[in-house]
Write a structure and sequence with these properties.
alpha/beta, 4-stranded parallel beta sheet
């Protein structure tokens, strides 16, 4: 299996409303050669629960336990990228 063209990297923290808007926007795109990587710094499972509402999107979810700094969260999610191009989008 080949790598996706672009990795959409999303570091997140408890902002499910904004993350939902972002995922809704990605879901309607016609370009489909991407992966979505989410690193969650939230103290609860609200982001994880939201992600399950998007079974058709190629989402790879990872929770930071324990939580890390915002900078480290962004760095960690980009390290997981498999594509030659990375788009960092904060929720």
């Amino acid at each position: 299996m080949s790598s996706p063209f672009i990795s959409i990297c999303i570091p997140t923290y408890k902002r499910t409303g904004l993350l939902k808007k972002l995922l809704d926007s990605i879901q309607v795109q016609t370009f489909r050669d991407f992966e979505i990587l989410i690193n969650d710094n939230s103290p609860d499972d609200s982001v994880k629960e939201l992600v399950t509402a998007y079974p058709l999107l190629p989402i790879s979810y990872q929770k930071n336990e324990p939580a890390v700094t915002a900078v480290e969260n962004g760095t960690r999610v980009m390290r997981r990228a498999n594509a030659p191009w990375i788009k960092l989008v904060h929720d």
